[in-house]
Amino acid sequence: MVTFSVVIASYLGSYGGAARNREQKILRAINSIQSQTFRGFEIIVVADGCKKTIEIVSDLNIKSFFVERKGHFSGTPRNKGIEEAEGKYITYLDIDDVYGENHLQTIADNIGNYDWVWYNDIRYNPRMRVWYENKCDITVMGRHGTSNICHKKDLSVAWDFRGYAHDHYFIEQLLKFNNFTKIPTPEYYVCHIPGDQTTGYDL
Predict the structure, then answer these.
(1) Which pick of 23, 106, 146, 192 has the fewest CB atoms within 10 Å?
(2) Which of 93, 140, 138, 95 is nearest to 117 (CA)?
(3) Per residue in 97-116, pLDDT tens?
(4) Phi, psi (rounded to 5 degrees) for 131
(5) Are 49 and 67 a contacting pair, CB within 8 Å?
(6) If we measure between CA atoms, which residue out of 146, 147, 120 comes closest to residue 133?
(7) 7-31 residue pLDDT tens
(8) With contact defined as beta carbons under 8 Å apart, do 181 and 114 qualify?
């Protein structure tokens, strides 16, 4: 039984603020899902006009789809992932980030009958050389993103804003559904934060 569909949108071309070595990092991201203690999941990689993505994942036992690129931060890849998902819940992973092994289990243990849930993520302090819990705010632009949400597939929400604030406008749609809660922090490790001089790094 598929409980979670993990959607990965992938564009490996160059753009400002992109993480380095993303061809290797997408494999790292996929491996972090495959290493989950919770087994009821599927992986859906959607190539955003990126044939290289399809080449990289073609030998893996996961779903992969190609969509025409509609522009940077277009919602098309994630919408395709939602459309093709067989899981009850949709969650996301950026190609340059990773899940800890208990990420999906933590969500499964706490999602109950909620339509969607949100949670803090985990980031790295390079000065202290430690990972720490990053407290997000689901109502403030720039204080949350795909690293902070899991939602039911059947809510009929869509990624329809093109631009860096696409996460915020998607979550604004989720906020219209009142049956949600914040859950204990699972294990989403944000490994790249473009433009942040304190935590802007490539792990």
Answers:
(1) 23
(2) 138
(3) 999 999 999 999 999 999 99
(4) -85, 145
(5) yes
(6) 120
(7) 999 999 877 666 778 889 999 999 9
(8) yes
